[in-house]
Design goal:
Length: 511
């Protein structure tokens, strides 16, 4: 098996998986097709391993909106689907159902001893780590720090950073902690974005408001701000994004400073803003109403290049959930009806789940939001989402096309720095693909996603290889005393094993 990324070498043929606990396994997404099968866990090898180690007492939870990479039949239909896009946090409305379904499998009244949950996304890090830590916090009583530390210790090689590293995913893990501590109450509301305040905005930055649709399978751009929707604050910078707040239900007034409206007649925002402006306030020309409480602000900075090209020099985004930012859990589910979410540039999400964002596009931003109230309604559209109790049915989701061919718009589309072609409609709103991305091979695209991951056994073993599955004494353990104990157990198991499970050679690790 070709390994995508700088992983530790396996002593024998192995699979890319780790035991976060003795009943939760995290693995990269297996595949049944080439070329992915060459650098991912082959599905048949993973199934053989799970069958040998856990008999029928395993089930898979997968989170890939881009497609699982294998049909359900190859894992005996023993799979639960809760897909959402790569490098993003889950729609929070999915969390109660995911937690309940995992709980029922591991601890329900009909649970058999020795059951395990197998979680996977693409690399088995961000999305898998977010859900694994959420389960440990909400169902096992772990602290946030302990859950994150355990996942990192079991999944990542030393020096490659934390297992869950994307700021918005970390924010979601802390949301789960608040949700758990206050009775597991979550109320979904439609959210209206009233204004976006930006401090020290650089030239050529595109600001967009996005949210989830199709139960979280896809991210939709609900609005991209144009130049005519901005107001430049030319005097002293307000001390806080909350300074413009008032009791008005319609709009938050500007700070008491001199306003410099734009005099440009151009219809896009690719031209330079006034570098002397302390702040810019974007006010949409029509209401921006998102269908859920999950809100994403997406930023992209472009500079014009020659011959119909633009150079993307900055890419960043940030997710927040208005229910939690409105202190819903602390108020018994009655979240504040409006609020301001503020964040600095350095704390935003970077490119493809990394900290890399390119050149600085702004110093900080604040999003002014409120719960939407459709015409004729006093409260807006509100849906209470409770965690199903034991014995109650737990809703699932339909899987994405496992080959990622039926809905190409659901496949992961990651922004990156570099040259792009200009859109005929608008220089500032080009949606053309990056040349760098379009020219990459499949293996090259995979290398970053598995960087630093490692395998880990349920009792502290550094590796989970095919030889270990056979019961042979080939155990590698970090702690010397644990190594002696595991080696003795392995030798005894090997002596007692009359018949070995023969695994095929498709899982050979050539590193």
């Amino acid at each position: 098996m070709i390994v995508a990324g700088p992983r530790q070498k396996h002593p024998e043929a192995g699979l890319d998986l780790c035991y976060v606990t003795d009943n939760i396994i995290a693995t990269s997404g297996p595949s049944s097709t080439f070329p992915q099968k060459a650098y991912r866990n082959p599905t048949d090898s993973l199934v053989r391993f799970l069958n040998y180690k856990h008999d029928i007492n395993w089930a898979i939870w997968e989170f890939r909106a881009e497609g699982t990479g294998y049909p359900d039949s190859e894992v005996y239909g023993r799979i639960r689907h809760y897909p959402w896009p790569d490098h993003h946090p889950p729609p929070f409305a999915l969390v109660p159902n995911i937690m309940a379904s995992m709980r029922d499998w591991l601890k329900g009244p009909d649970t058999k001893p020795g059951r395990v949950v197998v979680v996977h996304c693409k690399a088995g890090k961000g999305r898998s780590g977010t859900i694994t830590c959420s389960y440990l916090i909400s169902e096992e009583g772990w602290t946030v720090d302990d859950a994150l530390f355990r996942f990192t210790a079991r999944r990542m090689r030393s020096g490659f950073g934390p297992g869950v590293s994307i700021p918005s995913q970390l924010r979601w893990v802390r949301y789960v902690d608040e949700w758990t501590k206050h009775g597991k109450t979550y109320v979904e509301r439609q959210i209206e974005v009233l204004e976006v305040h930006v401090w020290n905005l650089r030239a050529g930055v595109k600001v967009s408001v996005e949210g989830y649709i199709e139960e979280g399978r896809r991210i939709k751009n609900f609005h991209t701000f144009h130049r005519h929707e901005r107001v430049v604050i030319g005097a002293s910078q307000p001390n806080s994004a909350t300074s413009p707040m008032s009791n008005s239900d319609d709009c938050l007034p500007l700070p008491d400073v001199k306003v410099q409206p734009s005099t440009s007649q151009q219809g896009n925002i690719s031209d330079s803003f006034d570098d002397g402006a302390d702040a810019v306030i974007f006010r949409p020309s029509h209401p921006i109403i998102l269908p859920t409480s999950d809100v994403n602000i997406d930023l992209e900075r472009r500079n014009k290049a020659a011959y119909g090209w633009t150079m993307v020099t900055s890419v960043a985004h940030v997710w927040f959930n208005a229910y939690f930012e409105g202190h819903g859990p602390q108020n018994g589910g009655n979240a504040e009806t409006s609020g301001v979410f503020e964040i600095a540039w350095d704390a935003m999400d970077g490119i493809k789940g990394s900290a890399r964002k390119g050149t600085k596009a702004l110093d900080r931003l604040a999003v002014v939001w409120r719960a939407a109230k459709p015409e004729g309604s006093n409260t807006g559209l509100v849906q209470s989402v409770a965690e199903p109790r034991e014995g109650e049915p737990v809703p699932g989701m339909k899987a994405a096309d496992w080959k990622s061919t039926g809905r190409p718009d659901l496949a992961a589309v990651d922004k990156d720095l570099g040259l792009r072609t200009e859109s005929p409609a608008s220089v500032a709103m080009s949606k053309a693909s990056s040349l760098k991305s379009s020219g990459s091979s499949s293996l090259a695209r995979e290398e970053g996603s598995l960087a630093g991951v490692k395998t880990h056994g349920p009792d502290g073993e550094d590796f989970v290889g095919h030889e270990a599955a056979l019961g042979r004494p080939t155990v590698t353990v970090s702690d010397p005393d644990l190594r002696k104990e595991k080696l003795a157990n392995s030798e005894a198991a090997a002596a007692a094993t009359a018949e070995e499970l023969v695994l095929d050679d498709t899982g050979v690790d050539n590193h």
